[in-house]
Each structure stands twice: as structure tokens, then as C-alpha cells.
Amino acid sequence: MNYLLNIDPRLHTTSEQIQKLQWKLPTIIHVHGDFTEESAKNFRQEMEMAENMAIESKQQHIPIVIDSFGGDAYGLMSMADAIKSCSIPVATIVEGKAMSAGAFLLTYGAEGQRYMAPSATVMIHNVASGRSGRNEDLQKHSNEVDRISKKLFREMAKNCGKHESYFYDLYKQNEHADLYWDANESLKHNLVNHIGVPKFKVNVSLDFSFSL
Q: How far apart are the C-alpha atoms of 101 and 34, rounded to whole Å?
């Protein structure tokens, strides 16, 4: 993620003044690594801070850069709730990969504000169980996994303007195997709206006055 900071070159700006301008720089959240309870907690804190800073600086969108293999579904849902409760629209940007939970998170970017690098990859699949134990417990866990999977697929479809079973139907047509999509395929299904990574241009001006 790149941005440009434009300051009038005729001004002599001290380092202290530059530091005071930092709040005017774009607030960007990076989602890297695995989705865990801890990373979800950090994400919620970052979202709250980003929202406050964006309101103060009049930033119109909060960019979330995703490069992740995914992880915990409950962590994902917590992060999604943080996005949905934010008063500033979110722009999601895939750099490298958005897989599993990362692919679902991608769709919580506002319509028209979902981006994907040309060489990036999206992977969609069902929520994994990965649990052993008593049959009774396994059945209950299986029911919970099925509930979460259906919920996430419905929300993904809603976020992308599709009928509620759209992505799950594609997953079933692929014989429940992982769906790997490049940028063009993701654009075709409206998972993303643009191919390419946006740049931010920030114009900052300083006003001086003299008085006795």
C-alpha cells in the first residue's frame, strides 16, 4: 500500500511539525498471518482507533489490506462485526492471498471498494472441523460447523449482491473442493470490484499567521 504526502516545498517544516501532521496520513489496517482470537481482538482495537482517526481527519474509507491463509471462523465473525459496526465505509484490498477466512473478510469491503492485486489469489472453502472425541460431541460440533458455514456463505453472497446460495452452490458444483480464483475470476463473481492496488494521495497544507 502506497500513499503520497504533498507539502508545499516553499515551507520550512520542522520534524516536530511533520509529527503533528501524522494524524492526517491514511489510516490503514493490515491483516496478515492467521486469524485467531488474539488477532481478532487486535483487529477490533485497530478498527476502533482507525474509525476515530478517520472521523477526525475526514478520511472517507478505512483500507484493510489482506494477505492471509485464513484461520479461526469465530475470529473472522468477530472481525466482521467490527467492520459492520464501523461508521466509516471499509475498502478491502488483497495483496498476495485471501484464503479461507481471509476470502470471507474480503467481501465486507463496501460495494465498489473491493480491490485485488493482479497476481493475488482467493481461496474459498467450507469451515473445517478438525476435531476428535465422543460421537455425541462430534455430532454437536458438526452441527455448529454447518451452521457457521451456511451463515458465512450467506453473508458473502449478500455482501457481493448475489442470491444467498450463490457461492455455496459454486462450492458444491466443485464437489466441495477448495475454490481457487485469480483476480479475473474473482472480478467475474463480484467478489472484488477492481483489479489493482489503489494508491492514496494526501494533500496537506499549513496555515501560518502573525500577531503581536
A: 9
